[in-house]
Design goal:
heterodimer; A: 510 residues; alpha/beta; Rossmann fold; 6-stranded mixed sheet; 8% strand; B: 354 residues; 14 helices; cytoplasm (chain B); CTU1-like_ATP-bd (chain B); tRNA-binding (chain B); Cytoplasmic tRNA 2-thiolation protein 1 (chain B)
Chain lengths: 510, 354
C-alpha cells in the first residue's frame, strides 16, 4: 500500500522531466539500449556514428561541385584542391577525422568498433571512398591541413605546432595510410613579406619595419578593446588560411565550426555590427588576388559540422579515441564580447538544448538588405556603403563633419557666438583614407573604445603595421577623384602615408 | 591633473563621459548631440509632415517623459509644425500606474499638451488587477502586452491623430533583435528595427529614440531635472527577456558601442524573399475590426477566454481546444468596440490644459 500523503500538492511530487524521451532504447534501430542522449533523443553507439557522418556529408557535399546539380554521390568532383583548417580544438579535430574516414580511406568507425568489418564495401562500389585511381579523387591533388599558431600574439602561450603535426601525421600510420600535407603557419605571417611573396603579388614595398612578430604585436596592441583583439585574431587566421588555400589552387576550405560555435559566432558577430555578413558566417565564397594580380577562382569556405553540436563532437572524439591538442582560446578575457557570448550561449544550450539550432536556423533565413558595393580591405567580406554617414548621424562626434554642416543644423547655444569653430585634428583627404574601405564591423573593431579604460597601448609605435593584404589591396583601390577608373599600379607606401591612411584610427596619439 | 576639455567643442570643461561613445564632453554638447541625433533620426526617416497630429505614448517613466520634452523642443526648434498630444494607458494596476499617471498629468501642464488617458477597464471591461486575480502571475504579461498595443491604437483613433511616437530606446531595440534571433521569430525580427511601422488600418507608430541609449536618456532627464517615476511592474517580469537584458548589459560594459552595433546589424539584414512568402498575410479581426493574423485578433481571443472563465485558452493550444469543445462564443459575450481608423475630427472629448 502506498504511504503517499494525500494532502501534499501533486505538483510538488512530480518527477523532473527525464533527460530523454519515453524509452531507453535507441530511437533509430529500436533494438539496442541507448548510450547517448542528444536533444532528448536516445541513440546507441552503433547508430551514433552514421548519424554524425550523415549530417557531416549533408552539410558538405551539396557545395562540393561547382554547380550543385545531378546525383551528388556519384559525381562529386570539386574544381580544385582541399584545405582543412585545424585549430587543435575539438571541432576541427573531429572534422579532420570525419574527412579522413569519409573521403580518404582511413579505417571507419565500424572497423574500429566491436563489429566485424563488412564483407561488402560500405556504401557500395560507387561510393567515392571505395573507388580507386583517378575516379576516387573528389578534390585535386593532395589535401592539406593548415594550422595557424597564435602563440606569437599572446606572450606565454604554448607553441602547439609539433603536437598538432603529430595529430595530422597519425593518419599516415593507419591502415590504409593516408598522408595529408601539413602546412604550419604562424599568426605573424600576416606581416611577413616572405610568406606574402609565396601567396600574393608584391605591388608595394611595406615600410622597413621590425620583425613580423613585433609588427603583429604592434598591430594587436594598437586595438582599443579586448574584444577587438579577439576578432582581429580571428580575421587574421581566416585570411591566412584563405590566401594559403588560393596559393594551392584550393576550391574548398573546411573549418570545424560546430553548431554551438556557429551560434556563438553569429551572435557575437551581430553584437559587433557584422549583421551585413551574417550569411557568410555559415557559408561563404571568397576570391582573392593571386600572385599575378588577377582574381583567383572562388574558394568555398564550408563548415561541415554546422549541424553537429559540441556535445556530439565530444562524444565522437571520446569513442574514436581522438587526441585533442587544445587551442589557445583567446576570447578577449572575461570582458570580451567573444567570451561573454560563449558563456551566454553555452549556458542557454544547457537549459534549452534547442536554442543553438534555433539561432543558426534563424540566421540562415537572413540575407543582406542591399547589394554590396565593395569588399572590406581588412576582412575581405562584402562591405555596405554609407556606413560612415550612418555612424556620424547616430553618434555625433564633431560639429565639423560634412553631414552635420550640410544638414542645416544650428550651432549649439554655447557656441553660437563663438567666431572660431572648434579645432579638430585635420582629417586626411578621403581618398587616402583607409576608413571608406572598411566594413562596419572592422571599422568598429579598430575604433570603438571600452568604457573601462583602454587596453595597454605601446607608446613608441607611431605607425601601426597592417596585414600585408590590406596594403596590397589599398594600392589597388581607385581614388575617389579618379573618375576614369584608372587603377594605381605600383606605389610605395611610406611611413607618413601609412600614418595618414589610418590617422583616424590611431588612438595612441591622444 | 588639469580638467579635460570637451572632446566635441574643445572649449568647455568636460562634465560627462558619454555612454554611447565613451567621449568626455561638456553638458551643453551632451544636450545638443542628444537632441540632434533624435532630430537626425526623425528627418532621415521623414517621419512627419507639417500639420501632422502626433500622440506621444506617455507612461510617466523616463523614456516617455524625456520624449515628450524633446519632441516639444524639436518641434519648436526645427519648425516641424506638429500638433502634439499625450496619450496614456491605465492598465489598472494598483500602486503601479497611479503615481506615474500623476507625472503625465504634470507633463500635460508643463508642456501645454492635451492629454487622453484610456483605461483597460474602459476598453476591455477588465483591469490588470482583475486579470491577474483570474490567470495568476504567470502569463499575465501576455494579456498586458496585447491589450496595451491595441489600446494605444484605439486611443490614437479617438484623438484622431496620424501618428503615435513611443519611447522605445536603443537598448530595447537591441534586446529585441537578440531575443527574436534566439526565439526564431522571423516575422518580428524582420520588422523590429524599422523606425516606423504601419498596418493597413492602423496608425503609424515610430520610435524617435531608436538610437538613444537608455543611460543617456536617464542622464538627460537628470541634467534637465525632469522628474519621472521609475517603478517596476509589480507583476512578474518576463524571465526570458530578463536573460537577454542581462546579456546586453554585459555586452555594453565590454564595449559601449555594442548596443548601436546590434541595431546596425539588425538594419543590415532582412528575411529572405522565399521565407517571407511563407509568412501569414495580415487580415482584419472578424469581431473587432483590428488588424490580425487570424480570424480573431489576439486581444479578442484573450478577452473571450477571460469572459468565459478559461483565461488560458489564449495561451495554450490545449486550453484553446477545450474552449472550442464547449461550443461557439455566446451572443451576449462582452467584446471590444469595433475599431474605426481615424477620420475627420476627434471622436472623443480630450482633456485640455486647464
Amino acid at each position: 500500500m502506498s504511504c503517499e500523503n494525500p494532502s501534499v500538492d501533486k505538483d510538488a511530487l512530480m518527477a523532473r522531466r527525464p533527460k530523454f524521451d519515453k524509452t531507453k532504447q535507441c530511437v533509430k534501430c529500436k533494438e539496442r539500449t541507448g548510450n547517448v542522449v542528444i536533444r532528448h533523443a536516445v541513440y546507441c553507439k552503433s547508430c551514433f556514428f552514421p548519424l554524425i557522418s550523415t549530417r557531416f556529408r549533408k552539410s558538405l557535399e551539396p557545395s562540393v561541385n561547382p554547380t550543385p546539380d545531378g546525383p551528388r554521390r556519384k559525381a562529386l568532383k570539386a574544381s580544385g584542391s582541399l584545405l582543412v583548417g585545424l585549430s587543435g580544438g575539438l571541432g576541427s579535430t573531429v572534422m579532420l577525422d570525419l574527412v579522413a574516414k569519409t573521403y580518404f580511406g582511413a579505417p571507419s568507425v565500424a572497423d574500429l568498433g566491436e563489429e566485424a568489418p563488412p564483407s561488402k564495401p560500405k556504401g557500395g562500389k560507387e561510393h567515392p571512398r571505395n573507388m580507386t585511381g583517378k575516379d576516387s579523387e573528389i578534390w585535386r591533388g593532395v589535401p592539406a591541413v593548415c594550422y595557424v599558431e597564435v602563440c606569437g600574439a599572446f606572450p606565454g602561450a604554448e607553441d602547439r605546432t609539433e603536437r598538432v603535426r603529430q595529430v595530422v601525421e597519425s593518419y599516415a600510420t593507419t591502415s590504409p595510410p593516408f598522408a595529408f600535407d601539413f602546412i604550419p603557419l604562424r599568426l605573424e605571417d600576416a606581416f611577413d613579406l616572405e610568406w606574402w611573396k609565396g601567396v600574393g603579388e608584391l605591388l608595394f614595398t611595406p615600410p622597413p619595419s621590425s620583425t613580423p612578430i613585433l609588427a603583429l604585436q604592434a598591430y594587436l596592441s594598437s586595438l582599443p578593446t579586448q574584444t577587438a583583439i579577439h576578432s582581429a585574431t580571428q580575421t587574421l587566421v581566416r585570411l591566412l588560411l584563405l590566401y594559403t588555400a588560393a596559393s594551392r589552387r584550393a576550391s574548398h576550405v573546411l573549418l570545424g565550426t560546430s553548431l554551438t560555435s556557429l551560434s556563438v559566432n553569429l551572435i557575437s558577430g551581430i553584437a559587433q555590427g557584422a549583421g551585413f555578413s551574417v550569411a557568410e558566417e555559415a557559408m561563404e565564397e571568397w576570391r582573392g588576388e593571386g600572385k599575378s594580380g588577377e582574381l583567383t577562382p572562388p574558394i568555398r569556405i564550408v563548415r561541415p559540422l554546422r549541424d553537429v553540436g559540441m556535445k556530439e563532437c565530444a562524444i565522437w572524439a571520446w569513442w574514436c579515441g581522438l587526441r585533442i591538442v587544445g587551442r589557445e582560446r583567446y576570447l578577449g578575457g572575461t570582458q570580451g564580447i567573444g567570451s561573454l557570448t560563449r558563456n551566454f550561449i553555452t549556458g542557454l544550450e544547457r537549459d534549452y538544448p534547442a536554442t543553438v539550432s534555433t539561432i543558426a536556423r534563424t540566421c540562415a533565413k537572413l540575407t543582406p538588405k542591399e547589394g554590396s558595393d565593395g569588399v572590406c580591405l581588412l576582412c575581405q567580406r562584402p562591405a555596405q556603403h554609407g556606413v560612415q554617414e550612418w555612424k556620424s548621424r547616430t553618434s555625433i562626434r564633431s560639429y565639423n563633419h560634412a553631414s552635420f554642416s550640410s544638414s542645416g543644423h544650428e550651432r549649439p547655444p554655447h557656441l553660437a557666438n563663438a567666431t572660431d569653430r572648434p579645432q579638430h585634428r585635420t582629417e586626411p583627404s578621403p581618398s587616402s583614407h583607409l576608413t571608406p574601405h572598411l566594413c562596419y564591423a572592422c571599422h568598429t573593431t579598430l575604433t570603438s573604445r571600452s568604457s573601462r579604460g583602454n587596453v595597454k597601448q605601446t607608446s613608441d609605435s607611431k605607425v601601426v603595421p597592417l596585414p600585408l593584404w590590406v596594403g596590397a589591396s589599398l594600392s589597388l583601390v581607385p581614388t575617389s577623384e579618379d573618375s576614369s577608373g584608372e587603377v594605381w599600379a605600383t606605389r610605395r607606401m611610406g611611413d607618413g602615408e601609412m600614418k595618414a591612411a589610418i590617422g583616424d584610427l590611431l588612438l595612441n596619439d591622444s | 591633473m588639469a580638467p579635460q576639455t570637451c572632446a566635441i567643442c574643445q572649449k568647455a570643461k568636460a562634465m560627462v563621459k558619454r555612454p554611447k561613445t565613451g567621449e568626455q564632453i561638456c553638458r551643453e554638447c551632451f544636450f545638443y548631440v542628444f537632441e540632434t541625433e533624435v532630430h537626425n533620426t526623425i528627418t532621415q526617416a521623414n517621419l512627419f509632415k507639417p500639420g501632422d497630429r502626433v500622440a506621444i505614448g506617455a507612461s510617466g517613466g523616463k523614456d516617455s517623459t524625456v520624449l515628450a520634452y524633446v519632441m516639444k523642443m524639436l518641434n519648436e526648434r526645427y519648425q516641424y509644425g506638429l500638433e502634439l498630444f499625450l496619450l496614456s494607458i491605465d492598465e489598472g494596476i494598483t500602486g503601479y500606474r497611479d503615481d506615474s499617471l500623476e507625472t503625465v498629468k504634470r507633463n500635460q501642464q508643463q508642456y501645454d499638451m492635451p492629454l487622453k488617458i484610456l483605461s483597460y477597464d474602459e476598453l476591455y471591461g477588465w483591469t490588470m488587477d482583475a486579470i491577474v486575480s483570474q490567470v495568476g502571475r504567470k502569463n499575465n504579461c501576455t494579456f498586458c502586452g496585447v491589450f496595451r498595443r491595441q489600446a494605444l491604437d484605439r486611443g490614437a483613433a479617438m484623438l484622431n491623430v496620424d501618428h503615435i511616437v513611443t519611447g522605445h530606446n536603443a537598448d530595447d531595440i537591441a534586446e529585441t533583435v537578440l531575443m527574436n534571433i534566439m526565439r526564431g521569430d522571423i516575422a518580428r525580427l524582420g520588422r523590429c528595427t524599422s523606425i516606423c511601422t504601419q498596418g493597413e488600418d492602423t496608425i503609424r507608430r515610430s520610435k524617435p529614440f531608436k538610437y538613444a541609449y537608455e543611460k543617456e536618456i536617464v542622464m538627460y532627464a537628470y541634467f534637465k531635472k525632469l522628474d519621472y517615476f521609475s517603478t517596476e511592474c509589480i507583476y512578474s517580469p518576463d524571465a526570458y527577456r530578463g536573460h537577454a537584458r542581462v546579456f546586453l548589459k554585459d555586452l555594453e560594459a565590454a564595449r559601449p558601442s555594442a548596443i548601436i552595433d546590434i541595431i546596425h546589424s539588425g538594419e543590415a539584414f532582412e528575411v529572405r524573399e522565399e521565407v517571407k512568402a511563407t509568412q501569414r498575410v495580415q487580415q482584419v479581426c472578424q469581431r473587432c475590426g483590428y488588424m490580425s493574423s487570424n480570424a480573431l485578433c489576439k486581444a479578442c481571443t484573450l478577452l473571450e477566454g477571460l469572459e468565459r472563465g478559461m483565461a488560458n485558452s489564449g495561451i495554450t493550444d490545449r486550453a484553446r481546444k477545450k474552449l472550442d469543445a464547449e461550443g461557439p462564443a455566446p451572443d451576449n459575450l462582452r467584446t471590444i468596440p469595433f475599431f474605426k481608423p481615424p477620420s475627420g475630427g476627434p471622436l472623443i472629448a480630450i482633456e485640455s490644459v486647464s
